[in-house]
Design goal:
It contains one helix and ten strands, in the order αββββββββββ. It is mostly beta strands and 207 residues long. It is elongated.
Length: 207
């Protein structure tokens, strides 16, 4: 239902865009782009609660710095409106750790301090869901908060330099217990949470 309302709202914005042109200041217009960059996963927190094969309930909480270099690549499409705002749907391939990769579908809202047609500082908020065969579980959430600067390359192309903080959560369907040397899965696995914090530096082309 929520997705239905989201896409309905975007459809209404797109209909309004048909009556405007990209060169008219402050008017609604279509936008698209590509983003790629470097991601440094800096902190990992895990919480597992399970019935051990050796007997008893085990509760493990672990938080540690675990620097891991990754990358991301994504494409987006959406609308710009009211001179300083844009809203896009984003799809891409994100790395979390060396053994964890996710496909992400997200929504991203951007604000341009001087306007989306000009050289301008910007800020953005992004949130979405991740999908991965190597990370089966109850669902993956990905969120980003960041900013950057946009440089006008031509009347139809702009370069965006960005930096952001990223938060990711997932709930693995299984957990390997090093003590019992056993892979724990439901119903013995009662809680399985993993959280990742990362710093991203990126570059993008916006049309």
């Amino acid at each position: 239902m929520k997705l239905h309302l989201l896409f309905s709202s975007i459809a209404l914005l797109c209909v309004n865009c048909l009556c405007a042109t990209a060169s008219d200041k402050g008017k609604c217009c279509f936008t698209g782009g590509l983003d790629w960059g470097y991601s440094l996963t800096s902190n990992v927190y895990r919480h597992h609660n399970f019935d051990s094969p050796l007997g008893g309930r085990v509760d493990i909480k672990d938080s540690h710095l675990n620097p891991d270099s990754n990358g991301y690549l994504s494409a987006n499409a959406g609308v710009k409106f009211l001179d300083k705002y844009s809203f896009v749907l984003n799809g891409g391939y994100y790395g979390l750790q060396s053994d964890r990769r996710v496909m992400v579908a997200s929504a991203k809202a951007l604000f341009y301090f001087k306007g989306y047609q000009y050289d301008s500082a910007l800020m953005f908020l992004e949130a979405g869901r991740g999908f991965s065969s190597c990370m089966p579980g109850k669902g993956i959430f990905v969120g980003r908060l960041g900013g950057g600067y946009q440089i006008e390359l031509s009347t139809w192309m702009r370069l965006q330099l960005t930096a952001s903080l990223q938060f990711t959560s997932d709930h693995p369907a299984s957990f390997y217990d090093g003590v019992s040397k056993t892979t724990i899965a439901p119903p013995e696995l009662r809680r399985s949470d993993c959280y990742y914090a990362a710093v991203n530096i990126g570059i993008g082309l916006n049309f």
